[in-house]
Amino acid sequence: MLAVLMLTMGSLSCATRARAEDGYDLWLRYRLLTPEQVKRYRRHASELVVDSFTPTQIAIRKELQRGLSGLLGQNLRTSDTVTGDGAIIVGTVSSSFIAHLRLDTANLGHDGYVIRSVVADGHTAIAIVGNNDTGALYGAFHFLRLLQTGQPIEHLDLRESPQIKLRVLDHWDYLNGKVERGYAGASMWDWWKLPDWRDPRYTDYARANASIGINGTVLNDVTDGATILTPFYLEKVAALADVFRPYGIRVYLSIRFSAPMEIGGLKTADPLDSRVQAWWRAKADEIYKRVPDFGGFLVKANSEGQPGPKDYGRTHADGANMLADVLAPHGGVVMWRAFVYSQANPDDRAKQAYNEFKPLDGHFRNNVLLQVKNGPIDFQPREPFHPLFGAMPKTALMMEFEITKEYLGFATHLVYLGPLYEEVLSSDTMSRGKGSTVAKVVDGSLEGHSLTGMAGDANIGTDRDWCGSDFNQANWYVFGRMAWDPTQSSRALAEDWVRMTFTNNEAFVKSVVAMMMGSREAAVDYMTPLGLLHLMGPGHHYGPAPWDASESEADWRPVYYHRADHQGIGFDRTRTGSNAVAEYAPPIATQFNDLKQTPDQFLLYFHHVPWEYRMRSGQTLWYELVAHYTQGVDDVKKMRETWRHLDGYIDDERYQQVATFLAIQEKEAQWWRDACIAYFQSVSGLPLPVGYAPPLHSLRYYESLSFLYVPGFSSW
Ligand code: GCW
Prior knowledge:
16 strands, Alpha-d-glucuronidase, C-terminal Domain, alpha/beta, binds 4-O-methyl-beta-D-glucopyranuronic acid, TIM Barrel
């Protein structure tokens, strides 16, 4: 009888555990560690010593208690003095209790922290000391991470401070609940029930962000309109800000430049008009009354149909500065987007943002950040770094990465973006000689800026797993960690994430990290190899459509970008072409201008190349193109194979979903390869290289596919 009961209990607890593994806990799972680890760590985690009761300190306590009780299976007692060996002491440099430990906390930096093994009142202890409360919170999460990833904690001497000041998620969420380019359900913000109902999910969102150092959130889409600035909504915004504040997260809003007309009854939004200025001043005052630590505004102006200062013959600087002036007295900033191009302008789209903004260098107020996408076009699987990095030394440039996989397979494709971020950040702009990396522009060290920032367009929604898939969580994670320190290795961050999200099992970690690290290159290969880009379906951006010319605007059409004809393929951006190369520092311009020196990965971005051109490999371009497309599909097959061997290492639910998503990815990779090869072959007129399988279907079949209600497309 007892045996039966135990069996039932066993399977029950198994079932409960399995049910809980729905991805909701992200990388903060805090599941019980192995018995050896528990034994090793428990000696250093017997009590929690705290001496302050600010909301952030309370959050720290809760997190440590939650984390340590989960990981070590024991509840921590809390006290205000050290009573024995193994205390964890948490506080800030300003606490007298901490001062007593005499730690070196000089120059810790805003939000920095130390984690040190110390002797306190004759007992061994670990001190987690922040420069301020938020720093202590970051330190607490770091400490938990050490345990989660199985690190030794016997002799700790860690010191960290963020290299970038504003580490921000941009939500492309509309007040109607939709998320532009969102593949993880609806908007998390339940505007209708706010401000009264504060979904506990908001707190978990804040915890997750704080655990990776994110300290800002833009709540609404850059094209959301002006309604968010009405009192009805500002009250709701204030409620969210209250939830996030203890976690060191400030709220920002996207604003519409024409708001004074839309909700203010004015006839103009001209930034030099005194009534317009007064309207914005009053609006800013009103916001700060409700949200004293409000971060500021994000603005998409004169871009893709949005209103802006140019409607009144003013410059982007006029517009940004007007807003900056009303925010400055409150300590707010303007994040002004450089994603600007105009269909009326026949010039190469890749050049337009540079042409528009470079002359404005030195014209922006010092609380303006110019938010520049990582590449000159639009978050494609691969682009060279944006030429504005390094070209505007007198302006604070912040990086904008896309975390949501608009162009990289939506929710289902496993594409780890760490290598993409790392590739861009480590690119050398050469603007001040060798070593002038994009990371150094963004962290302010190259040009001496103290206002610095990195934004990520979020991939978060109401899906139980937040991001639409387990592996998409890694992209949120790696964004936050890289925004903290843009020189980190995406491999090391992938490893942390795998350990925290799945298991510390070495075989599993090794295989999965390798799979993640290769996944972005695989996607580049099966979608847009050799410097191609923008080959996706119109509007919704789902699937391949290199033939498509249906979009109303030339530079929304794939044919604009690949320029394939009977002779060759690629966009000539050399000095004899559009001369986009000239926007890079001279050594880079010279390199990209020369077909022979251009790396294969950017070849067709900078050059129009004959199909029969001999590549470095000795093969023709046509051969290489087919080979890359095929390689991409083969890589996904290998990813599936890797995953097949990992059955049993983790819970069944997450395992099965990943397995199924990989199957979808393989199907869609094959589709991308076949559709692109079928199309390019119809243009090149060349036979398929020997040994390469023909597309599964005819070109006409691929061209006939059309899709309704694709997720993430706001125009349905
Ligand atoms: O990548 C494109 C997207 C748009 C987006 C725009 C932008 C917010 O397709 O959906 O709009 O960029 O960044 O402004």
